[in-house]
Amino acid sequence: MNKLTNLLRSANYPIVFTGAGMSTESGLPDFRSKDRGLWEKFNPNELANVQALRHNTAEFTAFYQYRLATLYKYKPHEGHHVLANWENDGVIKGIITQNVDTFHYDAGSKNVMELHGSFRTFHCHECEQPFDRENYFAGKSTCSCGGTIRPGIVLFGEQLPQDTFMQAEQEAGKADLFIVLGSSLTVSPANMFPLVAKENGAKLVIINQEPTDYDRYADLVIQDKSIKEVLTEIAAVI
Ligand code: APR
């Protein structure tokens, strides 16, 4: 813990990179944790892609209405608020996130790069007309044009938002400290950013309860504490 505190104190441009493990202590499931990950219950190949939207529409819609309903039940935890306070105080410079739960924004973070979009907006997959989230939550899922309504998140096989991606690439390149919080680092191209930072001279820290393939490149790996524990303990002394 002291090592991470010292790294944070001495860095000029720390960037945080979060995955679903950032939100499990809010109550949301992550995707790949043994026994509890979302992909243990649902098959992403049958649900989280455009083919499912087109040819498995009812199951696709039921899945995303279920995920939206789950999101409504939970909120950012103390760790999200610590990151927002640190950005406000200049301790960190921004957050690159794979998460679509909007919890970083909800907690007050400003410089947040949502690589996979978010559940903040919904639109028609055919005509791209924006669609009210509450109507989707209430069960409406077909556009007046006849198209299928979908969340503003990146489905498997779709392109990431280019401007967000480029901004994240710039931030990772400027980082002299890159802190991964709660990601298995198994999904590309998001999982390239720790190495972009490392190759540009940054110290790499990985806080994750399970090993990742990137641990061998890290200057510090913390597996024995949860993200909320680590963030709140450091917030008390930094
Ligand atoms: N503290 C520390 N680590 C945690 C905690 C916690 N409280 N909770 C979970 N973890 C770890 C798990 O051990 C796991 O290795 O967080 C990691 C989460 O990994 P994944 O479930 O694979 O989530 P993520 O890496 O964000 O997935 C990336 O995959 O399905 C797609 O688009 C989806 O953005 C997602 C992407």
Protein model, in words:
The protein has 238 residues and is of the alpha/beta class. It folds into two domains: 2-27 and 76-116 and 161-235, Rossmann fold; 29-73 and 120-153, SIR2/SIRT2 'Small Domain' (2-Layer Sandwich). The protein is built from eleven helices and nine strands. It has a six-stranded parallel β-sheet, sandwiched between helices. The protein has a three-stranded antiparallel β-sheet with strand order 5-4-6. Strand 2 (94-97), helix 7 (103-106) and strand 3 form a beta-alpha-beta unit. Helix 6 packs across helix 11 (227-235) and helix 9 (162-174) packs parallel to helix 10. The chain is elongated. The mean pLDDT is 96. Residues 19-21, 24-25, 30-33, 37, 44, 98, 116, 182-184, 186-187, 207-210, 226-227 line the site of adenosine-5-diphosphoribose (APR).
Distance between the termini: 11 Å
Structural class: alpha/beta
Radius of gyration: 18 Å
* Low-confidence spans: none
Oligomer: single chain
- CATH homologous superfamily designation of the largest domain: TPP-binding domain
Q: What percentage of amino acids are in beta strands? A: 15-25%
Small molecules held by this entry: adenosine-5-diphosphoribose
Following the backbone from N to C, one meets helices and strands in this order, namely: HEHHHHHEHEEEHEHEHEEH
Q: What is the class of the largest domain in the CATH system?
A: Alpha Beta
What is the fold-level CATH name, i.e. the topology of the largest domain?
Rossmann fold
Number of strands: 9
- Number of helices, counting only DSSP H or I runs of 4 residues or more: 11
Shape: elongated
Provide the number of structural domains: 2
Identify the CATH architecture of the largest domain.
Answer: 3-Layer(aba) Sandwich
**DSSP helix fraction:** 25-40%
Mean pLDDT: 96
For the report, how would you describe the main beta sheet?
A: 6 strands, parallel
**Biggest sheet, spatial arrangement of strands:** 3-2-1-7-8-9
